[in-house]
Amino acid sequence: MKHYSLYKILSILFSCLILLSACHSSKLADLKVSENGRFIATKDGKPFFWLGDTGWLLFNKLTREETETYLEDRKQKGFNVIQVMVLHTTEAVNAYGDSALVNRDVAKPKLTKGNNSTNEEEYDFWDHVDFVIKKAEEKGIYMALVPVWGGNVKAGHVSQKQAEIYASLLANRYKNQSNIIWLNGGDIKGSDSLAVWKKIGKTINDIDKKHLITFHPRGRTSSSDWFHNENWLDFNMVQSGHKSYEQDTSANEKRHFGEDNWKFINDDYRMNPIKPTIDGEPSYEGIPHGLHDSLATRWTADDVRRYGYWSVFAGAFGYTYGQNEVMQMHKGYSSSTSFGPREKWSVGIKALGSSQMIHLKNLMLSKPFFDFVPDQSLVLDQGSRYDYLVATKAKSTALIYTYTGRNFKVNMEKIAGEQVKASWYSPRDGKTLEIGVFDNKGEQAFNPPAEPKNGNDWVLILDSK
């Protein structure tokens, strides 16, 4: 009997160790700004290439089973960050009908003490948020949380006092969770309710020293427009927006960059103090140009690839993809339906662009990512608009992206070595075509495969030999 009891005890202890090991293994690495101030690194100094997806209404719209489907799909496609609203509105409810707040007061989350039921009828809004965050953690995905969407603050629904109480509650709830990134703001200009945004940023940062924080701005703006020198802002985020060149005509817009999202990155890259920057909302795949006319031309996989390579080669530390139906978790038409969705989110997750973004991530991580610096002097005929070529280099590697696949000339001798090995990399499928070996001097012409056209995009890779 004694031996049997000891055996049972050892079995229980062994089982506990397995459970503890499983829990520990799901913890993700803390993130920090790299030593050179340009990138994001894990705690042990390894490169973290942010490949984000906009699942803005994930907490509101998807059940637990649907959440599993969505997160697994994004994991398989290489996404490691999901950008999501905690509160889309002060009337927010989840897929089970549970409200987030008491009387629409952000300072009064509707919490059910000790309730983490597996019974759908008893799901607490905040327990469901916890479930989604932990499920993402299991899959190696960070959750970039917007505490409250910007329009609620602009409309006067959140005072400074309420903001401080709410931000404190959120920060304390998630400060020990491994996979959190904070996105203050939410499609809003920082000048709209500036004091509230500063209060949220400082409050979260004072309580939660572990997690990075930025500000998600309005279209055609960057967090750097208002918060670059704030101590709580770890990195800048741009929303290059959804307008085409032809639509970018408003005299009220500070930057008339059209689709040239690389120009936003250039602006942030030149600022002091040095901080990392990223395009956190370029045009979404499947959404109409300019957003609001459902009959307008829609952005395609070609476009989202272009935004990705343009911004990363210009100096961004990663890229956020978006898809029309997925970003709003569209299930069917309702009063909250926006931007002319044509299918359900479960179909939208299969959009072509979502499976192609991993090739950008793989390319950059196959090279010394932290060593890359933008260098347009590599290209002799840079072009403009869709013909624009964007270039980046490290000590022994240079990368040049062409969206149209036109012929161009390269100014050699920009990287080490007497000779370089040249190859073409396809953003569409991640395959590499060898070109040959060239002397690393003078000018060299390159002719990408196929005839020039929008979407015939290639990356010229030059490696020291």
From TrEMBL:
Residues 1-29 form the signal peptide. The keyword Signal applies. Residues 373-463 form the Putative collagen-binding domain. Keywords: Signal. It comes from Arcicella rosea. Residues 34-370 form the Apiosidase-like catalytic domain. The keyword Magnesium does not apply. Gene3D superfamilies: Glycosidases. This is Collagen-binding domain of a collagenase. InterPro entries: Apiosidase-like_cat_dom, Collagen-bd_put, GH. It holds the Pfam family Collagen_bind_2.
